[in-house]
Amino acid sequence: MVAVDVGGTFTDVCVLDQGSGELHVAKVASTKDPIDGVMAGVEEAGIDLSATALFCHGTTVATNALITRKLPKAAMVCTKGFRDVVEIGRGTRDDLWDAYKDNAEPYIRRRDRLEVTERVDQAGQVLTELDEEEAKEVARILARREVETVAVCFVNAYANGDHEQRMAEILREALPDASISTSSGVLPELFEHERFSTTVANAVLSPLVTGYVNELDRRLKDDGYDGDLLILHSGGGVMTPEAVQELAVRLAASGIAAGAVAARYTAALCGHKNVIGVDMGGTSTDISLVYDGNLRTTNEWFVEYGHPICFPSIEVLTIGAGGGSLATIDAAGSLRNGPQSAGSDPGPAAYGKGGEQPTNTDANLVLGRLGSKLVGGGMSLDREAAEQAINTIGEPLNLDTHAAADAIIRVANANMADAVRIISLQRGYDPREFALVVFGGAGPLHGAALAKELGVPTVLVPLRPGTWSALGCLMVDIRHDLSEMFLRPAAEADEQEVNEAFARLEEQGRKLLASEGVEDDDVTLERSIAMRYLGQWRSLEVAYDGDIDQAVHRFHSEHEREFSYNRDHAPVELYRLQLVATGKTADIELPKHEKGGEMPEPIETREVWFEGEAHDTPVFERSEIPAGASFEGPAVIDQLDTTTLVPPGVKAEVDEYLNIRMEVK
Questions:
Q1: 442 in helix, strand or coil?
Q2: What one-character DSSP code corresponds to residue 571?
Q3: What single-letter DSSP state applies at residue 431?
Q4: How many CA atoms lie within 13 A of 351 on its CB side?
Q5: How far apart, in whole angstroms, are the C-alpha atoms of residue 504 and residue 617?
Q6: What share of the chain is helix, strand, coil (3-state, %, to 5)?
Q7: Average pLDDT for residues 389-409, to the nearest whole number?
Q8: Contact 282, 9 (CB under 8 A)
C-alpha cells in the first residue's frame, strides 16, 4: 500500500507492507508539476507499482489553484437579478476595522455572470417557467467566448432543480467539451450565497482537478499499477477519479486533511481519546483537534474569505509557521516569524541554494538541535551560512547569534500556541485535557516547548513523523456526505417522515458506493440532523439514532459546550438531514513490539542550547531505540524524515508501537 502527500517543500511517500506491517518512507523535493514529484518519490522509494494493492494521494492542486487564481475560463448562469450574489456575499469583511481592505474578487468576473428568466418559490413550486430562448442565447454567447466550465445557480433550486437541469442540457448541447456544475447537484441546500459560492468553486476547479487526477492515473497505470487511484478529500475520506469529476471542490482541502486523520490514529494507538495534532512542515503548520475519538469538522470553510465552501471538512487551522518560515523585523522593530516562507527553492540559508534570510531551520541548526545532515545524509546544511542569516536579525536587536536564534524559535512557538488556543480554548476545550501529537518534518523539534507553553502534559511523536501525513491517506475510507433540507419544528416533526427522508439519502449513498466498487457488507451509514433554536441563523449538527427527542436533548448539551449557553425551554427547529455514507477500505496494522529494551549508545554528543544555556547533549539514531526504552532529556533523536528534541527535565519512553511519549512538566 502506497500513500503520497505533496507539500510545499517536500513530497512524502509512505509504503506499508501489508504482510509484515513494516513502514518504508522516502522524501523528495516538490516540483512545479506535482505529478513529477509524485513519480520521483515513487522511484526514490523503489516501489513496484505492479505489486501495489492500493495507491492513495493527498493533493494541494485545488487549494493552490484557488489561491493563485490560475483557473480555467469560467462562466456563471443565474436567475435574473441574482448575478451579484457571489460578490455581495454576507456583507462582512475579514478585517472589520480596515475599511480599505476589500474581500477577494469572485472566482468568476461579473461580465461572465449571465442571467436568464426563471423563478421557483421556496417550496419548489414553479412561479415562472425557464425562458428557453434566453437560455439558448446565453449558451450561444458562452460558446462564442470559448468557456471551459459553467456554474448554473438558480435561486431556489435546492427545492426544485428541474430548471437547472434543463439549463445544463442546453449548455451541454452548445458547449459539448465544457464542464457543467449545477447548484442543485453540488449542494442542494438553503442560503443562496453559500450554495452559489460552493458551486462556483466546484466549476472552476473541475477541469483542473479532473485533468490532474486523470493524468496521474494514466502515468501510474503506464508504470504497472492496475488498482483504483484514491484521492483524499476534505471530509477525511477518499474519492475515486469518477467521483472527483462531479465534486472537484471536495479536494480544496485535500492535503491538510491527511495529517488530522493520522493524528487521530496515533492517539488511538496510544490510548488517548482527546488529542491536538500539530503537523509542522517546511512552509506551514496544520493544527487539528480530536475530541472523544472524533475529529472536529465544519460545514463551512473557505480558501479565501468571502467565498465559502459548504461541504463537511475536517477543521484544520493552518498558519504560516514551518521550517522555512522567514524571521523578519517589522517597521516597529519587533521580531516576526512567517507567514512568508523560503520554500524549497532557495530554501533556508543553511541549504546553500542562495537563501539569505533567516528561517526556523537556520535557528535550529545554530542552536545545535539539527546536525549537519538532513534526509538521511541526502542533504548537507551550511552552519556558517545559517549563522550569517541569523545575525541579520541579531545585530539590529543587539542579540548575539544564539540569543537571536532562540528568539526566532520562541516567536514561532508562540504563534503555534496561539493557533492551538484558537482551535481549543475558543471552542470550549481545555488543552490540558489533551495529548499533543507532533509530526511533519519540523513538528518534533518544537513539540515539547509547545506543550510546556500550553500546559499539555503528554507529547506523542509517531514512528515516521516526517511522512505521517502521507500515511494518513491510508487510514481513511471512501466517504460521501449527503444532505437534504428539512425545515420543521422539532415538536411537530414526524419520525416516520424523517426516516423516509433518511432512507432516500441512504439509497443514494449505497448507489454511489456501489458505483465505486464497494460491497454492500462494507457500507456504513451514519445519520445526523442539523438543528437550531427557532429564529437562529446558524445550525448545530448532532447524531440521530431514530429518536427526535433524544436528538434535541443532545442539541441542548452540544450548544452549551460549544457556545457556553443553551435555552432548554426554547423551541428547536430541524434544519437539515445529513448522512455520511462510508465504504470500508483495507485496514492498516502497524506491528507491535515487545517492551524491555534499553537505550543504545549515542551516535555522537554535541552542544545544544536550551533557554540560553549550552548542554552537552547525546544524539541517538531512532531506528536503534527499542520498545520499552526510557530516558530523560536533554536528548536529540535523529531519523531520515525528522529530528525529535527532548529538552532537559522531560521524561520520554518508547512504546510498543515505537511512538516516543514525552511527559512535560
A1: coil
A2: -
A3: G
A4: 22
A5: 63
A6: 35, 25, 35
A7: 94
A8: yes
Identify which has the larger pLDDT, 586 or 483: 483
pLDDT tens digit sequence for 333-374: 999 998 888 876 788 998 888 888 999 999 999 999 998 877
Neighbours of 567 (CB within 10 A): 13
Answer for the pair 119, 155: CB distance below 8 angstroms, yes or no.
yes
What pLDDT does 238 receive?
84
234 pLDDT band, cuts 50/70/90, is confident
Q: Are 283 and 320 in contact (CB under 8 A)?
A: yes
| Identity of the residue numbered 366 | V
- The alpha carbons of the chain give a radius of gyration, in whole angstroms, of 26
- At 580-599, the pLDDT tens digits run 999 887 777 788 899 888 89
The DSSP element (H or E) to which 339 belongs, if any, is: strand 335-341
275 touches 451 (CB < 8 A): no
To 10 degrees, what angle do helices 61-68 and 192-222 make?
A: 130
What values do phi and psi take at 394, rounded to 5? -65, -40
Residue 375 has pLDDT above 70, yes or no: no
Residues present in the chain in total? 665
C-alpha cell at 507: 439509497
State the Cα–Cα distance between residues 266 and 460, nearest whole angstrom: 8
Q: Would you say 405 and 390 are in contact if contact means Cβ atoms under 8 Å apart?
A: yes
d(CA 386, CA 366): 7
Lowest mean pLDDT among 19-33, 183-197, 446-460: 19-33
Burial 67-84, CB ≥16 within 10 A → b, else e: eeeebbebbbbbbbebbe
CA–chain centroid gap for 448, Å, is 24
CA distance 461 to 439: 6
Alpha helices in 465-609 (DSSP H): 468-472, 495-515, 548-563
Q: What is the dihedral of CA 611, 613, 616, 622, to 10 degrees?
A: 10
Neighbours of 182 (CB within 10 A): 25
First to last CA, the chain: 39
pLDDT at 194 over 90: yes
What is the pLDDT at residue 378? 65
Q: Beta strands of 516-603 (E only): which ranges?
A: 523-533, 540-543, 572-583
Q: What does the CA dihedral 156, 161, 162, 163 come to, rounded to 10 degrees?
A: 50
